[in-house]
Amino acid sequence: MLIQEYFKSREKILNAAMDEYLESKDSYPSELHEAMRYSVFSGGKRLRPILMFAAYEMLIGRKNIGRLSRLLPAACALEFIHTASLIHDDLPSVDNSPERRGRPTCHVKFGEATAILAGDALITKAIEILTEIKQSKLALDCIKILTKAVSTRGMIGGQAVDIISAKKKVNINTLRYIHLKKTGALLQSSMELACAFHDAEENTSITLSNFAVNLGLAYQIVDDILDEVGSFEVLGKNPGEDARNQKATYPALIGLETSKKQAIKLLRDSHNLIKNMKNNDILIEFVEMIRQRLP
Amino acid sequence: MLIQEYFKSREKILNAAMDEYLESKDSYPSELHEAMRYSVFSGGKRLRPILMFAAYEMLIGRKNIGRLSRLLPAACALEFIHTASLIHDDLPSVDNSPERRGRPTCHVKFGEATAILAGDALITKAIEILTEIKQSKLALDCIKILTKAVSTRGMIGGQAVDIISAKKKVNINTLRYIHLKKTGALLQSSMELACAFHDAEENTSITLSNFAVNLGLAYQIVDDILDEVGSFEVLGKNPGEDARNQKATYPALIGLETSKKQAIKLLRDSHNLIKNMKNNDILIEFVEMIRQRLP
Predict the structure, then answer these.
(1) What is the pLDDT of residue A235?
(2) Residue B243 has pLDDT above 90, yes or no
(3) CB neighbours (10 Å) of residue B65?
(4) Which is nearest to A18 in space by CA: A3, A33, A32?
(5) Amino acid A1: pLDDT
(6) Which A residues, 86 through 145, put their C-beta within 8 Å of a C-beta on chain B?
(7) Closest CA to B86 of B145, B159, B17, B23
(8) The model's pTM
(9) DSSP-assigned beta bridge partners for residue B104
(10) DSSP reduced 3-state for B100
(11) What are phi and psi of A99, to 5 degrees?
(12) With contacts defined as CB-CB under 8 Å, which chain A residues touch B128?
């Protein structure tokens, strides 16, 4: 199966589930529910839930969309948390981004106050739907995995360091920390969730977590490189924004060539971690997909 | 036991537990952890956790501080959620409050971006510590109770309507909705949590929930009245702020005398709901304490 087809089919069941879980636009208070839906359905790539699906289907040994229905609470929770983080990141006092994926950001469309609440509500919703998982222990394990990933030791910690470091001279270790936590923690949790649903051995969970962390870091470095030398088409947003926002990037700190080498090494490491696993074709294609973005 | 003594002793074990759960000020990223601690330890009245303690001690039939240790995750979770809601409410784009309890608010002290993240982190922390409750089913029940209370059908829904209604002419039904959800939902959950820990009958849980909802509504009306005719000493903040912020209040909508009558009726209803329960002395004193604030 081509990875594009895989993405398309899995995205479809994910979107249907998110549509089911979210209150309708007209539910009181409608502005809030509309803002939540606006940001959730704004053309995201759904990387985290689809990575979780792919890892789970590798573990059960076959691609079977029917078997994914039990994962849907976790898949939607991942995407709701990710969306909440984008809404809060885009706020004027944080990254001050008026646009995302060619559309006005949540606070531009609905006002800052509603955007703040929409983020809070999506975090809460993510946990709430995890409580609906039938087996108590599995539900609780999923909530543990997700809250650890979101906490100040994870995603929020990375966002905080990113904020504190803005317009300051940061070193490569700080930049690495930001990426590892801000995006890495949630990617890692998508693998841990897949393993929890399969009741996989700890070894497998650690290997897949490392796979996702390397992949996430590579993705960020490639993004930094594209921001410096890429086009709007490949990047999906205007290049040069990092420099304009005085954001630390890999190319700025260690040069373009060394950045490329690092990205390639991380992608090779990702590949090597899973190369001996059976039914790894979709995850291997994930790695390849990111490599192909490199200019 | 005098209610003041009761408050003091229960507040002490709550504060010790919150201190234990929160990362130290120096933990990286320190600005974020400092902001969380600053807002949690800023002299709040701890109404929600102490109400939960009091209900639980009524249910088990004796005041026993030693027996409260198993409730501490839920007690801290309630206070962390409440603190998060205050941090986000105080933001410039929401209520724009530079001070709370005589101290600069979180965003004034640490910047808006860190304040937004501190709120997010406290919501996440609240859920995370609930997962530490030993019995899986109880832990999951607590998370269900709390996420329902925080959701768009609860606290966040109330905050959203409050924001949307600002500077608009609202009617008494909308104002009632705001209070019922914005403060009532979390108060109600404090009773539901106490009942979950005691495995109380559904009847008891419903009665105590109604008790807390009435009490919360009465508290808000008394606050509105004091804002109109009270002094700084009784109110704990400058009176007249609601009028200056063009906020809808009970006295503004239904007049001072009718507001007083409503508050007294709600307090009488609260009293009546629990008057036949054994060991109800602390909860009865709670009602009395609010009645005494009435000018």
Answers:
(1) 64
(2) no
(3) 13
(4) A33
(5) 63
(6) 88, 91, 93-94, 107, 111-114, 116-117, 119-121, 123-125, 127-128, 131, 136-137, 139-140, 143-144
(7) B159
(8) 0.96
(9) B99
(10) strand
(11) -135, 150
(12) 144, 147-148, 151
Size of interface A-B (CB pairs under 8 A): 145
Q: How far apart are CA A79 and CA A62, in angstroms?
A: 24
Residue A132 confidence class, pLDDT cut points 50, 70, 90? very high
E-only strand ranges, chain B: 99-100, 103-104
With bands split at pLDDT 50, 70 and 90, how would you rate the model's confidence at A201? very high
Nearest chain B residue to A111, by CA: B93
The DSSP letter of residue B167 is T
Taking all residues of chain A, what is their mean pLDDT, rounded to a whole number? 94
Alpha-carbon Rg for chain B in angstroms: 18
Which residue in the block uniquely carries the two structure tokens 């420099």? Answer: A243
Q: Does B271 touch chain A (CB under 8 A)?
A: no
The candidate with the shortest Cα–Cα distance to B226, out of B253, B259, B271, B258, is B259
Report the 3 state secondary structure along chain A. CCHHHHHHHHHHHHHHHHHHHCCCCCCCCHHHHHHHHHHHCCCCCCHHHHHHHHHHHHHHCCCCHHHHHHHHHHHHHHHHHHHHHHHHHHCCCCCCCCEECCEECHHHHHCHHHHHHHHHHHHHHHHHHHCCCCCHHHHHHHHHHHHHHHCCCCHHHHHHHHHHHCCCCCCHHHHHHHHHHHHHHHHHHHHHHHHHHHCCCHHHHHHHHHHHHHHHHHHHHHHHHHHHHCCHHHHCCCCCHHHHCCCCCHHHHHCHHHHHHHHHHHHHHHHHHHCCCCCCHHHHHHHHHHHCCCC
Domains of chain B: 3-291 (1.10.600.10)
- CA separation (Å) from A266 to A52, A68, A84, A248, A255? 20, 29, 28, 20, 17
- What tokens were used for A188? 């890692």
The Cα–Cα gap between A8 and B49 comes to 47
d(C-alpha A29, C-alpha A120), whole Å? 15
Buried b (16+ CB within 10 A) or exposed e, A85-104: bbbbbbbbbbbebeebeeee
What number of other Cβ atoms are within 10 A of residue B61's Cβ? Answer: 9
CA A215 to CA B74: how far, in whole Å?
37
Q: Is B125 within 8 Å of A151 when comparing Cβ atoms?
A: yes
B18, B79 in Cβ contact below 8 A? yes
CB contact under 8 A, B36 and A152: yes
Note the pLDDT tens digit of each residue in A258-292.
999 999 999 999 999 999 999 999 999 999 999 99
Is residue A10 pLDDT above 80, yes or no?
A: yes
pLDDT digits (tens, 9 = 90+) for A221-242: 999 999 888 776 666 667 777 7
Task: Give tens-digit pLDDT for A205-221.
Answer: 999 999 999 999 999 99
Greatest Cα-to-Cα distance within chain A, rounded to the nearest angstrom: 53
Q: What's the rounded Cα separation, in Å, for the pair B220 and B209?
A: 17
Which residue is associated with the tokens 């609010």? B290
Contact check, Cβ <8 Å, B120/A119: yes
Q: Is A31 an 8 Å CB contact of chain B? A: yes
Structure tokens at B220: 């808000």
pLDDT score of A47 more than 80: yes
User: What ipTM was assigned to the predicted interfaces of this complex?
Assistant: 0.95
